């Protein structure tokens, strides 16, 4: 298989999360990823860095605007030191409501703001050990540091930065400035081919870069069981969760699933169902088109559809609406499948 297999581990505790990452590393996962939702992505990544030996460690994704670029750069250098140069800084904007309501940070011009954030982080990583002034004046970000010097050089003066993006403008930005792009959790080969890759190519062309300058990472909910129907139902909750977001209407319509999504939107809006039980209203065809489910062999065949389109696939076990014991079962079957594909 020419597509790299990477993994987003799950755990109720940091210890369980780290153990799952170790198992995935032994199974052959090239990267283990830490998200930012119920835990801090950077703290989780630090735990994974200390608990693994050879796999790359990435954040998928760290929220870019809820920390200062200085703090993000320092955390990136610390994790890179813990991992001996194995860290990938995945950055994303999040949505407006999360920024303003959860984190009390401003939401303005997200595309130029992220571009400037990346520039400042790269400047700090490259120069913070030199003791020289560091300055940046942009539309959204301002930096003026004098008389500051880290006591030792970083492990690397350039840490890879991947950008998460859904819309065309943010995806083009990844093509222009990033070392890699990380997709939305539901990214079919169709969506990758029809929407994401053209935007990435536009960004690459604008910057005078080529496809070889960018790693394309597809994210996928992956549910494996000897009974395909069981695997399909485990994955249903994640699809239902994303289907409640009205702004994804074009995405679902692209797959001929507009009516399926609207039924879920209507039920959710009427209060008929909470986000924990949306899987009951997700059709099998939604699951089949937007997730990787089935037996290990069936999923391996589905993964082959990304060859020639993506460089890596980030697999994650199903979690939405499932009790911990079921998530653990799904995770163990997924890690076993990764080992069988290696």
Automatic annotation (TrEMBL):
Gene3D superfamilies: Luciferase-like domain (3.20.20.30). Residues 12-309 form the Luciferase-like domain. It comes from the Bacteria. This is LLM class flavin-dependent oxidoreductase. It comes from Micromonospora sonneratiae.
